[in-house]
Every structure is written in C-alpha cells, then in structure tokens.
Design goal:
The structure is a homodimer. The first copy, chain A, is mainly α. Chain A has 2 domains: 77 residues, Arc Repressor Mutant, subunit A (Orthogonal Bundle), CATH 1.10.10; 52 residues, Diphtheria Toxin Repressor, domain 2, CATH 1.10.60.10. The first copy, chain A, is built from 6 helices and 2 strands. Chain A has a two-stranded antiparallel sheet with strand order 1-2. In chain A, helix 1 crosses helix 4, helix 2 packs across helix 3 and helix 4 packs across helix 6. The radius of gyration of chain A is 19 Å and the shape is globular. Chains A and B meet through helix 1, helix 2, helix 5 and helix 6 of A and helix 1, helix 2, helix 5 and helix 6 of B. Bound molecules: manganese (II) ion (MN) (4 copies). The site of one manganese (II) ion has 4 residues of chain A, from loops. Chain A binds a DNA duplex through helix 1 and helix 3.
Chain lengths: 148, 148
Amino acid sequence: MTKAGRAGTLPSEPAQARRFGRVRDAQATALLEDYVELIADLLADAGEARLVDIARRMGVAHPTAAKTINRLKRQGLAMSEPYRGVFLTEAGARMAERARVRHRLVVRLLETLGVPSEVAEADAEGMEHYISDVTERVFTQFVGRKGV
Amino acid sequence: MTKAGRAGTLPSEPAQARRFGRVRDAQATALLEDYVELIADLLADAGEARLVDIARRMGVAHPTAAKTINRLKRQGLAMSEPYRGVFLTEAGARMAERARVRHRLVVRLLETLGVPSEVAEADAEGMEHYISDVTERVFTQFVGRKGV
DNA sequence: TTTATCATGTAGCCATGGCAACAATTAATA
DNA sequence: TATTAATTGTTGCCATGGCTACATGATAAA
Ligand SMILES: [Mn+2]
Ligand SMILES: [Mn+2]
Ligand SMILES: [Mn+2]
Ligand SMILES: [Mn+2]
C-alpha cells in the first residue's frame, strides 16, 4: 500500500522537484544580486564603492565581503585593482539595474497592500530574489493600477 | 569628500545591515522549513515519509536529503530509527504547520493578484520564507477581502 | 618625515548543502 | 529459501559564506 492516501495536497513529484530546483538556483544568485545592487548604489551615491563600506552595509566582516567580491570578479560582474574601490562590468551593471527595479517594485507592492515602509523594505530584501518575470509583470500592473 | 553625494537612495548603514542580517537568518531556516513541510505532507498523504521520496521530491541526491534530515534531528525537529521513515517532533510539526499556512497564503495572494497557479506555486516556494508576521497579516486581510 | 591609523589582503577554521561512490540492510521475486 | 533489487547509511569531495587572526599597503597626523 502506502501509495493510496487521499489524493492529497501534494503536487506531482517532477513538478515539485522542479520548483525546489528553481528555488536553489535563485538562492545561488541572491547574494550576488544584493552585492551588485549595493555597489551600484554606492557608486551612484558616493562615487566609489570601498570594501569597508560594502562590508559594513552588508553587516559582515570585511574578509567575507572580500571573498564575495572575488566571486563577482570571477563571474565577470565586477572589477577592481588592489587597494582601489570596486567597479561593475557591463554585465554587473545590468544585473544591478534589474535587481534595483525588482527591489523597488516589491517594496512598492507591499506598501500598496498596506505594509509599513520599514517592514516592506526588510521583507523585500529577501522576497525580491524569488519573483519570476510573470509575477514581476503582474506586480507592475497592480501598483500601476492602484497607487501612482 | 566622497561623503557628500546627493543624499541618494541608500538607507542608513545600521538599518541596511540589519535588513541583510534578517535575510541571512531567514535563509538559514528556509530549507528546514521546506523539509518539515514536505515531511508533514508525506505523512498526511502517504502515511509515511521515506528518505527516497523526500530526496526525489526535493530534487536532490539521497545523501543530501539524509544530511539535512540529520540536521533536523539534531535541532529537535524530526526523529527516525535506522531504515525506518522520518517523523516530526512536536516542534517540527509546529514549524511545518506554520510553513504550510504561509505557503498557501502566499500562493493565494499571488493568484488573487492574477499570477497563474503554476507560477504562483513556483514563486511562493521561494518567497514564503521571507514574509514577516506583519506582512503575513496584511496578505491574509487582502486575500480575505478579495478572493473567495 | 616618521608614526599611527585605517583599509585591504590572506590564511585557516567552521557549518551548510550539493555531489558520486561504495557498504550494509531491508524488501521483493524467482 | 536464495537471489536480486531497492533503500538507507557512510565516506569523502567540492563550493559557498560566515568568522578570527595576522600581514601588508596606503593615508593621515604628529
Ligand atoms: Mn536582497
Ligand atoms: Mn535588494
Ligand atoms: Mn519553500
Ligand atoms: Mn513551501
């Protein structure tokens, strides 16, 4: 037996496996997205993105930030000379821009639904990485229809 | 200089660090939540939760699932005897229930906004772990007002 | 121009979460 | 019952993403 049950709430095995696989993929890029987004913001806002500032804003020790930045460089998303600040490649800048758009969209969606700004910012920082293109379009429509 | 800029889009340093810290915390428990939720579903649906089935549904190799289940046991969320299926402790069952509620809520919210069911299920699998209590309440209100 | 401070780099440690390969046990079938 | 198949366990590998401690380079103060 053990196979019968009551046709429960479980999705099909391949479908569920696919979903969890997509979550793993998204998780793998989530941190990189946050880094390039932050670097872009620092460049725009302060003219440079220093390791110390990146580390402080991410809330991690500086060697942790250094390692992640090396990973960005290996993946062709960032560049830097020793003891100089960090810059984004074309690809990095594109990723940052997409991340920024999605970030602000999710914040706006949450605020439109009535979530307080501070909470919206906090929750968006996690949620933003798991939104598909389809959902992104739906969100855009919704915040357009409602708030301005 | 380098400090001036144009009072840009950046949040305060401590606020931003706090947010990223919360994201890291949520990420750390995300996988555990998915496992206990799946185990609960398998128990309800098939009467037992076997390692093979868990691994297949998670889309990972069985040693990967075995390691995660050991972690669940270490954290007092699951129990199992060698070569028998996996069960949840009180704490594990509670976590599963909360995960299940949030999962379905996020799916319903997305569907209510007009996201197709299949996409809603996929996106919810990632988003669900980053929703604060406040946002959860807002979502509940919203789907209550709208849907049904 | 020394000297002190600050920023960056580097090494090594740990836990997580993937994998493949092989061993041992349990269940199914011949 | 004996053999085969399936399940579970175990080991060892890798990359990621945290940390501390220490070395080195650059900047600011004395
Ligand atoms: Mn983020
Ligand atoms: Mn962001
Ligand atoms: Mn999930
Ligand atoms: Mn879930």
